[in-house]
């Protein structure tokens, strides 16, 4: 296989494993590119390679997505395989049969492969709203907002507002090694996620030890963070009003002290909602309001998300 063809195959495989492990919607997969590759006789092992990168990936074996998701993925893979009239692949049908016999669960996993070679895995409810909150589910738009919060220097204390399923914090802890990371969320049921750090994160003595705490809104005055972040919180007016209230409380806690860097990364679901947020920042209780400026995007794409989604990040001054 020519070097350029090999590079194309590797890119295709990466497109499948990153999306599958993160349980992305099936329509986001590069099916057309796969069909074109399957028509090339030199790529006879491609489907086996895809199986190894998806349902047989070590991360998937340890932390599988929902049974329904794996079943739908394999059905679509078989459909694309049969469309090009190639020889049947027994491994495909065997893998599908295993999902058909597997017991359904109310939980599934999303895993995100990091550039460092590690991964972040979340255990999530398969329901859109679980235990009265959307915080137990990672939306397809969420990783896009998370990326903008990641490139922080180490040796900092980070407070996250609206931690939800915990993807932002876990990614930052693994990639940026802050001294301390505080997860906070207004809904107590996010504690069902069982946020914890695996032993390998702190095993490296050359890296700062990460201290993890889970906080509620009324505890914010006890923390003196260097950095405050929130990812994809601008999804409805009620959430925005609550978020701005927390920011004002943080501003009051920081009087006569060094103010933290504050970053708000979000997906532009509705321009009017974003406008409401910036308007609320300028309202009392403090006459000067909370100042903000837009931050430039960084080019490196770390996590799989909808490429058509518009994300933005604001730098706030409390």
Name the CATH superfamily assignment of the largest domain.
Vaccinia Virus protein VP39
Number of separate structural domains: 2
CATH topology of the largest domain: Rossmann fold
The major β-sheet equals: 7 strands, mixed
**How large is the count of helical segments?**
11
CATH class designation of the largest domain? Alpha Beta
Account of the 3D structure:
- Belongs to the class I-like SAM-binding methyltransferase superfamily. EEF2KMT family.
- Keywords: Methyltransferase, S-adenosyl-L-methionine, Transferase.
- Pfam families: FAM86, Methyltransf_16.
- InterPro entries: FAM86_N, Methyltransf_16, SAM-dependent_MTases_sf.
- One of its GO terms (cellular component) is protein-containing complex.
- The chain has helices at 3-21, 31-38, 46-53, 58-62, 67-83, 90-101, 142-147, 167-176, 199-202, 237-253, 271-281, and strands at residues 107-113, 119-125, 157-160, 180-184, 211-215, 227-231, 261-267, 291-295, 311-317.
- The chain has 318 residues and is an alpha/beta fold.
- It folds into two domains: 3-104; 113-317, Rossmann fold (3-Layer(aba) Sandwich).
- The strands form two sheets. It has a seven-stranded mixed beta sheet. A two-stranded antiparallel sheet has the order 1-2.
- Helix 5 (67-83) runs antiparallel to helix 6 (90-101).
- The longest helix is centred in the N-terminal third of the chain and has 19 residues, at 3-21.
- The chain is elongated.
- The relative contact order is 0.11.
- Mean pLDDT is 77; it is low at 128-137 and 197-212.
In short:
By secondary structure, this protein is α/β, with parallel strands linked by helices.
């Amino acid at each position: 296989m020519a070097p350029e063809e090999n590079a194309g195959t590797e890119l295709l495989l990466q497109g499948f494993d990153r999306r599958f492990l993160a349980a992305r919607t099936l329509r986001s997969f590069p099916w057309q590119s796969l069909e074109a590759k399957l028509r090339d006789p030199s790529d006879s092992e491609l489907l086996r390679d895809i199986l190894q990168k998806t349902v047989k990936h070590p991360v998937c074996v340890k932390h599988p997505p929902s049974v329904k998701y794996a079943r739908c993925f394999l059905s679509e893979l078989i459909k694309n395989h049969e469309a090009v009239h190639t020889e049947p692949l027994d491994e495909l049908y065997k893998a599908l049969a295993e999902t058909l016999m597997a017991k359904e669960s109310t939980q599934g996993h999303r895993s995100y492969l990091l550039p460092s070679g590690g991964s972040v895995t979340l255990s999530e409810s398969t329901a859109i709203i679980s235990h009265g909150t959307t915080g137990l589910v990672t939306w397809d738009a969420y990783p896009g907002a998370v990326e903008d919060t990641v490139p922080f220097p180490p040796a900092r204390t980070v407070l996250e507002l609206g931690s939800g399923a915990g993807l932002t914090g876990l990614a930052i802890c693994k990639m940026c090694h802050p001294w301390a990371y505080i997860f906070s969320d207004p809904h107590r049921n996010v504690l069902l996620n069982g946020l914890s750090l695996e032993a390998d994160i702190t095993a490296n003595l050359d890296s700062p030890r990460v201290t993890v705490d889970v906080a509620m809104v009324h505890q914010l005055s006890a923390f003196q963070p260097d950095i405050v972040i929130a990812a994809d919180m601008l999804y409805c007016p009620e959430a925005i009003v609550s978020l701005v209230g927390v920011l004002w409380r943080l501003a009051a806690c920081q009087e006569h002290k060094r103010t933290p860097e504050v970053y708000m990364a979000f997906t532009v679901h509705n321009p009017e909602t974003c406008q409401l947020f910036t308007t609320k920042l300028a309202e009392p209780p403090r006459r000067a309001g909370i100042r903000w400026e837009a931050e430039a995007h960084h080019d490196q794409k770390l996590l799989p998300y909808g490429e058509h989604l518009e994300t933005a990040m604001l730098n706030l001054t409390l």
